[in-house]
């Protein structure tokens, strides 16, 4: 599939990796629907893509809502007449351990509440599911060639303090295998699915963190720096044009290792 | 150029180059882009109609009902305590706003 002339939908397109992906597709001749929770971010990204000569719409929406999902798919079809690429970048973190102990008594003093658990499940897992499901529905019914891209994370292997986040990201990483297996079973041949599992990436969330903690993270990255969002976007672009990539999740981490030098 | 007011927002629909642009007026009077490069090759009248339809899809008028989220109750014995529906955009304020959330 060619990027030029295709139509891409990017959730979480208002900042971070999603913004880079939206701009990458627009630069390379795709028509882009930018979906985000924050209207101000949408306005900025849509304006910048327009100034660069791109074709774009912006839709404020909550990816955990079925009604909103149907609305941004509908808006994309109304604006551009088709849909070829759906990248589910929208994601959140609410870090914390499942149990916290009182230092003096050794008894449990706090449990991870549903306020930390449920929103992460809803956005990262249910939101990804809804976006991919409805995008696939449009692609099947429209008969267009398509690519579905769930965004996983290198922390799908299990990160302390991220029981909620890691649980969603391992599920997101599994989606391509199941979705393509089902497509094969149902005779759906026009849509591929490739997951992307980024490592530590230079998004505002990470670059704004404690610099000492950031240096500590980078000691475990072989290339000695954060992965750039544009590098993630370029990998997704490669997934579009390389028709053999399918039913898998690709890590792009810069060589993230644990403290003993073993690749994570 | 066509100007419409919908959902208490003023939108302008204008042909620019080969395509069409939609912008909306913000409260401070500046314009924010809704879409650009749209409906290339479509006749003017049809493009305007499609732009209006797109505006109504992107900025829907309506009311969202909020909670309670009966699918994720906090159990205290046999008592189910339900908080707001986390599927609503305000879910991130759940722990702060909900009087029923177990702290």
Characterise the protein shown here:
The complex is a heterodimer of chains A (264) and B (103). Chain A is of the alpha/beta class. Chain A has eight helices and nine strands. In chain A, the strands form two sheets. A seven-stranded parallel β-sheet of chain A has the order 3-2-1-4-7-8-9, with helices on both faces. In chain A, strands 5-6 form a two-stranded antiparallel sheet. Chain A starts with 6 loop residues before the first strand and ends in a 12-residue tail after the last strand. Chain B has 103 residues and is an alpha+beta fold. Chain B folds into two domains: 59 residues, no CATH class; 31 residues, no CATH class. In chain B, the strands form two sheets. Chain B has a four-stranded antiparallel β-sheet with strand order 1-2-3-4, with helices on one face. Chain B has a two-stranded antiparallel ribbon with strand order 5-6. Chain B is elongated, with a radius of gyration of 21 Å. The C terminus of chain B is likely disordered.
* Sequence of strands across the biggest β-sheet of chain A: 3-2-1-4-7-8-9
- How many beta-strand segments of chain A? 9
By DSSP, the count of extended strands of chain B is 6
Oligomeric form: heterodimer
First and last CA, distance of chain A: 32 Å
Shape estimate of chain A: globular
Question: Structural class of chain A, please?
Answer: alpha/beta
User: What sort of overall outline of chain B do the alpha carbons produce when their principal axes are compared?
Assistant: elongated
Helix content of chain A: 40-55%
The stretches of 5 or more residues of chain A where confidence is low (pLDDT under 50) are none
């Amino acid at each position: 599939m060619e990027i030029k002339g295709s139509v891409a939908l990017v959730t979480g397109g208002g900042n971070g990796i999603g913004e880079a992906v939206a701009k990458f597709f627009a630069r390379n001749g795709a028509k882009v629907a930018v979906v985000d929770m924050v209207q101000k971010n949408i306005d900025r990204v849509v304006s910048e893509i327009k100034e660069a000569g791109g074709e774009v719409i912006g839709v404020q929406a909550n990816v955990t809502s079925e009604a909103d999902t149907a609305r941004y798919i509908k808006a994309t079809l109304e604006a551009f007449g088709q849909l070829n690429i759906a990248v589910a970048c929208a994601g959140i973190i609410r870090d914390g351990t499942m149990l916290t102990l009182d230092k003096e008594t050794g008894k449990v003093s706090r449990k991870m509440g549903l306020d930390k658990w449920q929103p992460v499940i809803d956005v990262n897992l249910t939101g990804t599911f809804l976006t991919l499901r409805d995008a696939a529905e449009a692609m099947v019914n429209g008969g267009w060639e398509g690519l579905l891209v769930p965004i996983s994370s290198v922390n799908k292997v299990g990160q302390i303090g991220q029981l909620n986040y890691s649980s969603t990201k391992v599920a997101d990483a599994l989606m391509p295998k199941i979705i393509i297996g089902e497509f094969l079973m149902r005779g759906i041949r026009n849509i591929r699915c490739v997951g992307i599992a980024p490592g530590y990436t230079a998004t505002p969330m990470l670059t704004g963190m404690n610099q000492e903690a950031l240096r500590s993270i980078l000691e475990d990255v072989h290339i000695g720096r954060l992965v750039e969002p544009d590098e993630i976007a370029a990998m997704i672009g490669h997934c579009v044009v390389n028709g053999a990539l399918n039913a898998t999740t690709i890590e792009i981490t810069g060589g993230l290792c644990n403290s003993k030098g073993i690749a994570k | 150029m066509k100007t419409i007011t919908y959902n208490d927002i003023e939108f302008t629909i204008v042909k620019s180059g080969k395509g069409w642009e939609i912008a909306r007026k913000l409260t401070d009077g500046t314009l924010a882009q809704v879409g650009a490069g749209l409906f290339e090759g479509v006749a003017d009248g049809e493009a305007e109609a499609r732009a209006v339809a797109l505006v109504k899809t992107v900025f829907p008028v309506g009311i969202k009902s909020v909670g309670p989220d009966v699918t994720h109750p906090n159990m205290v014995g046999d008592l189910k305590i339900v908080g707001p529906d986390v599927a609503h955009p305000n879910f991130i304020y759940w722990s702060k706003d909900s009087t029923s959330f177990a702290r």
